[in-house]
Amino acid sequence: MAARSIIEPFRIKSVEPIRMTTREERERYLAEAAYNAFLLRAEHVLIDLLTDSGTGAMSSEQWASIMRGDESYAGATSFYHFEAVIHDVFGFRYVLPTHQGRAAERILFSTMCKPGDVVPNNTHFDTTRANIEYVGARAVDLPIPQGRQPATPHPFKGNMDVAALEALIADVGAARVPLVMLTITNNSGGGQPVSMANVKAVHGICRHHGIPLYIDACRFAENCWFIRQREAGYEDRSPREIARELFGYADGCTMSAKKDGLVNIGGFLASNDETLARAESRLLILTEGFPTYGGLAGRDLEAMATGLQEVLHEDYLRYRIASTGYLGRRLTEIGVPIVQPPGGHAIYIDAAAMLAHVPARMFPGQALVAELYLAGGIRAVEIGSVMFGTTDLQTGEEATAPMELVRLAIPRRVYTQSHIDYVCEIVEDIFVQRSQIRGLRMVWQAPPLRHFTARFER
Ligand code: F0G
Q1: Distance (Å) of CA 69 to CA 22, 97, 293, 302
Q2: C-beta 53 within 6 A of ligand 1
Q3: Domains defined along the chain, listed by start
Q4: What is the pLDDT of residue 448?
């Protein structure tokens, strides 16, 4: 009889100590950090669920790749190796390495957008939105209605609302939409996947209007695994085959390889358009580096090339999605309201539902982030009105976000099940005493991307 447990498909070769602090110490550290977890020192954090970006553990094969890095300024072997993997996994002809995802975004939008343009997405990530707005264009989120309802389950809650996309294009005119984006998985909408049917439908609309479709590919492998698990006709297809089909509907992609590239730094911008790629490479040279290394060292390109293949291993993806689901299931059993169903890289607690007594203008998500740190040394991130809200500097009026979420992002191959059990116990303790939790006041901010540096008082 086959065992039922899905176990970590690796053993641990190198370890890094983590250390507990006392509640008193954490009270002091958090006050010094002005109740903003981004301003904490990592050494004062026990379990760091701030992000799954660049925080994963590389494999022994990736460390071996690091030693094979060719550090030639131009034409490095490592670039050609990396380029071959991009051709093979994603199918795009032109690839520009960048130091991380947002560098690819900046180059893409600076090349394709002009002031007054409109860029739709299922949900823009904060850096994507900021880079679009920086060039004077408008970033529009078009998730399906279920995507804005944390408790409503849907197998592909990351899907774009295709009727809303049609309506937007009709309203502003196709000439003002330089590209459409799809973020897989939809990070800001709860780490939820996009179905192949939705990718196809969006592709059809884009093609009809002559608008290029770009994929934000950060977590593409996790999205492909959900397609295999949940979409009819894909159960016997390999993640690699699913990825090739999916990217076949797109004209290009941006990628932060710090997620599904399984590396600590790296990214790229890819497309099939030679003229565009030439224009983009001029910007790349200006701020990132020569086109065969972008913002990276040769060893980084090698580690990425290896990571982008490892991430498609079925054993890895089965474990990855099961371990995120485990955290989601345990929290649901406790009664904690989370975005349902669990996503690929993170569990999102619905802070608006859990702390219904704290109004949005007092940042229930940020208050819960503070509590997680104080109670257990756990670092999480608010994805709500701190991240997406705005303050009218004349009136002091707060425009709040549609959801108040707290993300527990799970670094890849880093924490074991007992670490996750510990997280569940801490969340349970907080849940039991949730009526005692009070809101926070934002006393300083620097938009855009104010959440990184904002300061709060209790
Ligand atoms: N797109 C998505 C969907 C992302 O989640 C991120 C980063 C980026 C683009 C930008 O990539 O950080 O390499 O410049 N997300 C991280 C997070 C920071 O914590 O979710 P980057």
Answers
A1: 43, 15, 11, 6
A2: yes
A3: 23-52+314-457 (3.90.1150.10), 60-310 (3.40.640.10)
A4: 81
